[in-house]
Amino acid sequence: MSGEKRIPMVQFIENEELAIGNEDKDSRRKLSQTSCSSDACFVNPLMSAIRRGKSFKKSFFKETKLEDSDMKETDDLRRNVFHYAVSRPDTLRKLLENAETETSVQEALNQADEEGETPIHRAAVIANIESLKILHEYDNSLMKLKTTIRNRSVLHLAVKSRSVVLVKFVLSKDLDLVNTVDSMSQSPLHYAAGLKQSSALELLISKGGDATITDENGQLPLHIAASKGLKNNVSLLLRENPDFVDVLDKSSRSPLLLASQNNFPTVVSYLLSKNADYEIQDKLGLTAFDWAVSSNFPAVVQVCLDTNVWKE
C-alpha cells in the first residue's frame, strides 16, 4: 500500500480473534511470539484470518469495517483475500456481500498472483465449483479472464483440474472458451488429450472442440494423446478425424512415431491397425521401427514385427 506503513501480522492478533472464534490459547500465544522478518508476514487481519482457514463468527462483518481492509493487499505470493477465499465458498460469498467498495472488489478480482492467476483461476485450479459459481454470479465477465502467464483460460484450468463437472459448468456459461488457445497455441482439447480419463476430452468434442487446431510445435491433440500412450484418447480423436492418422508435427513426427519413441506398444499397435504409415521418417530420417530398435523397446519392436504390414 503506497504511502501507508504496513503493520506486522503479530499486531493484528487481537483483531483477528473476531474471525477465529474459540481457538486454543497456547496456539495463539505461539503465534503472538512468532517473529516475522519477511514481507510475507505483513498482511491485514482479514487476509490473516482467511489464510488460516478460520471460520467467521456471525458478528464478524458487523464488528469489522471492511473498508479498513485493503482488498487489493497481497502477500508474498501476490495473492489477495479473494485468492484464498475461493477455497471457502461461504466466506467468499460473505466477502462479496459485505464489501463496501465495489471498485476495490473488482480490482482485487482482476488481480493476478505470481502464477498469473486471478481468484477465478484459483477457483478452477482447486476445482471449487461453488466458488466459481459465486464469482460468475457476481461478475460473468470474470470467466473471460486469461492468466498473465501462459495466457490460460478458466476452461484450460478446469480441464487441467481433471474435474469434468467443472468443465461442464464452464462450458455451460461460456461456450466460446471451447477453442480458445494459450500462449503455446494449445486449446483445452490439447490439455484433455493428455489426461488418462477420456471424459473431459469426449465432452469438449461434443461441445465443438476443434481437433484440427495445432499448437506451436505443430501438434494436434492427437499427437499429445499418442505421445502419452493414451489409446482411448487416440481412438476418440481418430474417430472424429480418421484422416489425421499420419499428420506430421513440425519435427516431422506422426502419431505413430511419437508412440514408438515413447515406448507405447498398445498405441503403436492400434495406430498400425488404422493403417498408419510405418514408413514415415522424422527429421533424423528414422521411422517408428527404427526408433523402437535404437531405443531398445522390445515390446514395440515385437508389435511392429507382428503386424501384417511387416510380415508382407
From TrEMBL:
Keyword annotations: ANK repeat, Receptor, Repeat
Q: Does the keyword Ligase apply?
A: no
Cited Pfam families: Ank_2
In terms of superkingdom, the source organism counts as Eukaryota
Keyword Oxidoreductase part of the UniProt annotation: no
Instruction: List the PANTHER family.
Output: ANK_REP_REGION DOMAIN-CONTAINING PROTEIN-RELATED, PALMITOYLTRANSFERASE HIP14
Q: What's the name of the protein?
A: Transient receptor potential cation channel subfamily A member 1-like isoform X1
Q: From what organism does this protein derive?
A: Paramuricea clavata (Red gorgonian)
